[in-house]
Model the fold of this input.
Amino acid sequence: MSLAIESPDIEAVRNGDMVALHRLYERYAPSLFSTARRITGTEADARDVVQDVFVGLPRALRTYRGSGSLGSWLRTVTARQALMMLRARRRRREVPLAGIGEHLAASPARSTVDRVWLEAAVERLPEPLRLVVVLKEIEGLSHREIARELGIAETTSMGRLYKAKGQLRRWMGTDA
Done:
């Protein structure tokens, strides 16, 4: 959808129109949930992130200038919100219990490797590696953007991606 078509809803949401907010939610929430799920690692946290994004959207849209697509901007906002949740959890030293069984599962044979297995494997990565994989390979951020978002050096981002890909190759049985 072009920006010209989205503009009336954007302006309406900026002005507090809840019907327009609902239209944006219906359109973007599923893909934003997917982004948040990949970063946070749990469906419950992803739902919280998406809810927080839309609760704050009328205020956040004041900073949206219309350069680029609204969907890309919302994915960036969602990724930042998810990262803030993870940082807060680290400060509180919370450990999510969801998905613990996935970490114990053995890798499937090479012939059955598919997208579902790959997503599960990415979720098994330690958080620092998983975040870089999601932000780089799925969300398309540059290492410079990842470094800025995570508060790490660009070279650290590159190193984590290299390490994550190596781990995924070992789990797939393709590492010599």
